Amino acid sequence: MQGIEPKLHMSLTSRIEYYRLLIEAADDPESRSTDVVTQISELGDLYEEYLLNKKNLEKSIKNYRAYHNDLRKKLTVRLRELRRKERQR
Fold first, then answer.
1. Which spans of this chain does the record mark as coiled coil (predicted)?
2. Where are the domains of the chain?
3. Please, are residues 37 and 17 in contact by the beta-carbon 8 Å criterion?
């Protein structure tokens, strides 16, 4: 799974901000009604959602690994005990 690189997002964000400044400087009502302006906020929302999901996924992976390792250790101990009992018979 690949993630969104912050550098890529920040690059586009800075270009968007530059675009917004140009629109404000032009003071052109037609420019302000473009769909790009609405997509700017949607992109920000999507990136925030991505960061939240990424954080939750990292936490889930950490919890899974800890649980997996704990279970593996318990299973290893029990398998050794069973093998010892089998050898003693």
1. 40-74
2. 6-88
3. no
Taking the C-alpha atoms of residue 16 and residue 22, their distance in angstroms, rounded to an integer, is: 10
Rounded-to-integer distance, Cα 84 and Cα 89, Å: 9
For residue range 8-52, what is the model confidence (pLDDT) as tens digits? 888 888 888 888 788 778 776 666 656 777 787 888 899 999 999
The Cα–Cα gap between 20 and 37 comes to: 8
3 touches 54 (CB < 8 A): yes
- Inter-residue contact 23 to 32 (CB < 8 Å): yes
Residues in Cβ contact with 32 at an 8 Å cutoff, skipping those fewer than 6 apart: 23
